[in-house]
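thought: fold this chain, then report.
action: predict
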Amino acid sequence: MLKKVKQHSLKKHIERNLLDRDFSKRNEPLKYLGFLVDETFFDDFEMLYEFGKELGLQRKDVKLFTFVETRRKIPSLRQNQVTNKEFNWRGEIHNQNAKEFLDFSFDVLIGLYKGNHKYLSAMVAESNAKFKIGFNDADERLFDLLITVDLQQPEALKSEVKKYLKIFKKID
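observation:
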């Protein structure tokens, strides 16, 4: 029962954030890049930092936040991680690091997850990012650009994102 209430609240949370989105700075050039990643199918985080370097960014200008369904029993030093337990029944996030990540004004935010992921979609909707890129059957209302590419092929992923960033004049 509580799970259904939480799912409904997440949906309402997304709807509310979609109405409040500011599109005025969508065309800013790329200075800060953020990634929201589902750890269940993508865990090559170093590749993402290298991709930022290829785009002309320093490591400090590339931020990464991950979602994992339930935290493992093994202690982790990773702070940029959120679980489904950190969303309350009203769909609000109770993780200070996640809130700081979402409040940061990224020039481009890339959501690396498949399909309609309720928790990551809620985070994308809440994010203050200026331009949002999603993949493969994600909720099109959340993103400015949807790319169909196999997320398990990093080179194809990087080349497609780079191509569109050039088209939109985010990079040279």
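thought: worth noting. The two ends are 51 Å apart (CA to CA).
final: tokens above.
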